[in-house]
Specification:
The complex is a heterodimer of chains A (232) and B (339).
Chain A lengths: L3 E7 L11 E6 L4 E6 L7 H13 L11 H15 L7 E7 L2 E7 L3 E7 L7 E6 L23 E6 L3 E7 L1 H6 L2 H9 L8 H17 L8 E7 L6
Chain B lengths: L2 H4 L16 H29 L4 H6 E12 L2 H17 L3 H9 L3 E3 L5 E3 L7 E4 L9 H10 L5 E12 L17 H6 L9 E8 L2 E8 L2 E4 L12 E4 L10 E6 L2 E5 L6 E5 L11 E2 L6 E8 L17 E5 L19
Parallel strand pairs in B: 1-3, 1-4, 8-9
Antiparallel strand pairs in B: 1-5, 2-3, 6-7, 6-15, 8-10, 10-11, 11-13, 12-14, 14-15
The chains are: A alpha+beta (232), B alpha+beta (339).
């Protein structure tokens, strides 16, 4: 049985004179979602990020199993080294299938997965944060289309219960207080949210990041996923 | 002659003069009433259509904004009358259209589900003419209207955007409340500002020399950063003996940065040249020259006291627009292979 997915987003929400280096793409029929953040030290990275996330969501998905992002990302990396030289981009994404969730990350963007605790009756609880590739200076240690791409991080989660994936570019991820994120998630009750509800939460988080002094592009996407009818 | 006059009864209307309502006033009265009802209906309809898509908890903590309001005159006569009415008055008062619609449009509209629409004070509806109704009414149409008794003269369409969160959340800098109806309140505004114009402040006070970039508007003064209240701007503390709590306001308007000493301050300050800043008088910041202000000038003097060398008593504030921190100072570098 296909899971129910609701998507909300606020992409390149600010600042006013932002560079629009973030990109988001979704293929809800295939269950593919990707958020990429181009390295803003390279002028063409915004275009590269858009191309990358579109390629990820346009990928051919296998039947009856989640997509293996590893060969796909490495292939796109090789392609970008030629097509988009002197650019680099992060990737956080996921594939939602009836068998479960597969999460992927490369670089310093954030992908956090929350699950309702107490068999679906309790508050949202952090289930996983995908690894971030950071060096000692807080800069990304590997990026797609850069000279360094070592590891494509992937994680799988079972097709059970209600999940909430929160994808953010590194700008808002750095400045948003976790208490504020928790407060926002707390407003998503047991009732099935609408995409307008999730858009509102994404915009509110993005506005908070800007108010907290974030100078980088601010992009936030939220995906609510429910497997089966039971809310456990 | 009236019946009362025949019997010499005192007239209740004696001394009262009946002023006949002018045609244009009658039109204005009718049109205000009709537009109020119509606009309220249009906004409520737009609100009810949108609110159903949101959780109740979101509606309670947020508000929608009225993006546009289009009013369509349904026939040629109404369109002509309204245009004449507005243009006649605009000839006398150029701001008449804004004033007229401020009577017609409320500040806020609410739905039974808890959603609200806020209307920007400067919003002026767009007037459209229904092209199909530009011809005069035919005999049949006039007859139908006379049977119905009331003619619908306008149609309104509202477009909303939002919702936007009402309550401000955490801020990195302290926030201040400005007394209502004061120049300070107008400078700081009634709503929280997002990061926009910034100013570089260098303080020479009891704590030595400190410098920082702050978002505007900002209030400088004694314990300004630690005061609690409504979130309307940031606060910067000046540590010194002769400093008021609300000493100096710096704000941005139309791309320029201004500062002034609010009337609430008990002391004022002077420039390097010895000019004393009068309360509520604006001073524009020069983009190239920093403005140096020395604290501790009594409000009732026109000349700055000479002996103010001790910074722990008389702090010095330096305001400059300077070159702000690079917008993308934390630009993400492209990782390089270690060779």
């Amino acid at each position: 049985m296909s899971p129910q997915c609701i998507l909300g987003k606020a992409i390149n929400h600010g600042p006013v004179n932002g560079l629009w280096f973030d990109a988001f793409s979704a293929r809800q029929d295939q269950g593919l979602y990707a958020l990429c953040d181009g390295a803003n030290s390279c002028t063409d990275s915004g275009r590269a990020a858009l191309w990358l996330c579109q390629q990820i969501t346009d990928a051919k998905v296998p039947e009856a199993r989640p997509l293996d992002f590893e060969p796909l990302v490495r292939g796109l990396h090789e392609n970008m080294l030629v097509s988009f030289p002197d650019t680099a981009a992060t990737l956080v994404g996921m594939h939602v299938t009836p068998l479960g969730l597969r999460l992927v990350s490369v670089g310093d963007s954030e992908l956090a997965l929350y699950k309702r605790c107490c068999w679906g009756w309790g508050p949202w609880q952090l289930a996983c944060i995908m690894p971030k590739d950071l060096d000692a200076h807080g800069h990304p240690s590997q990026l797609i289309a850069s000279e360094v791409l070592d590891t494509v991080h992937q994680s799988d989660f079972k097709a059970r219960g209600t999940w909430l994936a929160l994808m953010m570019s590194d700008g808002p991820a750095r400045v948003l207080p976790s208490a504020f994120v928790k407060e926002m998630l707390g407003k998503i009750t047991r009732q099935t949210p609408t995409s307008e509800d999730l858009d509102y939460f994404c915009k509110t988080l993005a506005n908070e990041a800007l108010a907290s002094g974030c100078q980088d592009d601010v992009s936030i996407a939220m995906l609510w996923v429910r497997f089966g009818k039971a809310d456990a | 002659m009236k019946f009362r006059d025949i019997f010499g009864l005192p007239s209740a209307e004696k001394g009262v003069e009946n002023l006949h309502t002018r045609e244009m006033d009658a039109f204005a009265d009718n049109v205000i009433f009709e537009l109020k009802t119509l606009i309220s209906g249009a906004i409520t309809r737009a609100l009810e259509e949108r609110e159903s898509r949101y959780m109740r908890s979101i509606l309670e903590e947020s508000f929608f904004s009225l993006e546009s309001l289009v009013i369509k005159a349904m026939d040629a006569q109404t369109s002509r009358e309204l245009e004449d009415f507005l243009s006649n008055h605009e000839g006398i008062n150029p701001q008449f259209r804004t004033h007229f619609f401020s009577q017609v449009v409320q500040r806020e509209y609410r739905s039974t589900r808890g959603a609200s629409v806020r209307v920007s004070p400067g919003l002026v509806p767009i007037f459209e003419v229904n092209a199909q109704s530009l011809d005069n009414a035919t005999e049949d149409e006039s007859f139908i209207l006379s049977l119905k008794g009331r003619k619908v003269r306008f149609e309104a369409r509202a477009v909303l955007n939002g919702p936007t969160r009402k309550t401000p959340s955490t801020t990195p800098e302290a926030v201040m409340a400005a007394p209502r109806g004061t120049a300070m309140n107008q400078a700081l505004g009634s709503e929280r500002k997002t990061a926009g114009a910034r100013v570089h402040i260098t303080l020479h006070d009891q704590h030595g020399s400190t410098e920082k970039w702050v978002n505007l508007p900002v209030l400088l003064g004694r314990e300004a950063a630690t005061a609690q209240g409504l979130a309307v701007g940031s606060g910067v503390d000046i540590f010194g003996t002769y400093v008021s709590r609300r000493q100096l306001i710096v704000f941005e308007a139309l791309g320029q940065i201004y500062c002034f000493v609010p009337a609430e301050a008990s002391l004022t300050c002077s420039t390097e040249k010895g000019d004393v800043l009068r309360p509520d008088n604006l001073r524009r910041l020069d983009a190239n020259t920093p403005l140096r202000l020395l604290m501790g000038v009594p409000m009732d003097t026109l000349t700055a006291p000479a002996e103010r060398g001790d910074r722990s008593d008389y702090p010095l504030v330096e305001l400059s627009m300077g070159t702000g921190p690079a917008t993308h100072a934390d630009a993400t570098p492209r990782p390089r292979a270690v060779r």
